[in-house]
Amino acid sequence: MQGKVLVATAAVWIDRMPSTSPTDLRVLASIAIVAADGTAVPSGLQIDRISVARVEEVWASTSVDLRRDANTIEGVIRQGPLWNNGNTVDIVADFTDSAGQHYQLRATTTTVTTVY
């Protein structure tokens, strides 16, 4: 991975913004991968799957919306389960580099929040 140490930050939320459906309270999740030293992440990284685990329940998706800039690659998944605000989850990103090597990064103890 070009000698880079990568770290993950994550968020899980329920979108209750007025522009969304007030009855659709399924969670969304994102995980961002950055270089620990603040430099650019390798350009060939691709997030292939995001998994979110709560107790014994796992929600996983390969339908990942990607956002990237020079220093970050972020994946977002939507249409998750009906979890409650305040639940604690772990999030895992399965990703590959430009050589096809597979990796995982985990963000632990992420709290589900609500966005108004």
Please, could you describe this protein's structure?
An eight-stranded mixed β-sheet has the order 4-3-7-8-1-2-6-5, with no helix packed on it. The mean pLDDT is 91. A hairpin with a 5-residue loop joins strand 7 and strand 8. It is elongated and about 45 Å long. 0% of the residues lie in helices and 57% in strands. 25% of the residues are buried. It is mainly β. The protein has one domain: Immunoglobulin-like (Sandwich), CATH 2.60.40.
Provide a brief overview of the structure:
The chain has strands at 6-15, 27-35, 46-54, 57-61, 65-68, 72-77, 88-96, 102-115. It is an all-beta fold and 116 residues long. It has a single domain, classed as Immunoglobulin-like, CATH 2.60.40.
Q: What is this structure's SSE topology?
A:
Elements (H helix, E strand, L loop, with lengths): L5 E10 L11 E9 L10 E9 L2 E5 L3 E4 L3 E6 L10 E9 L5 E14 L1
Parallel strand pairs: 1-8
Antiparallel strand pairs: 1-2, 2-6, 3-4, 3-7, 5-6, 7-8
In the CATH hierarchy, the third-tier topology is known as Immunoglobulin-like
**Helix-strand makeup class:** mainly beta
The figure for the number of domains is 1
Give the low-pLDDT segments: none
Amino-to-carboxy terminus distance: 39 Å
Portion of residues within helices = under 10%
Number of helices: 0
Tally the beta strands: 8
**Gyration radius from CA atoms, angstroms:** 15 Å
The CATH architecture can be given as Sandwich
Instruction: Please summarize the sheet with the most strands.
Output: 8 strands, mixed
- What best-fitting shape do the alpha-carbon axes yield? elongated
H/E order of the elements? EEEEEEEE
* Strand order of the biggest β-sheet: 4-3-7-8-1-2-6-5
Q: Can you identify the CATH class?
A: Mainly Beta
Let me know the average pLDDT.
Answer: 91
The fraction of residues assigned to DSSP E strands is over 45%
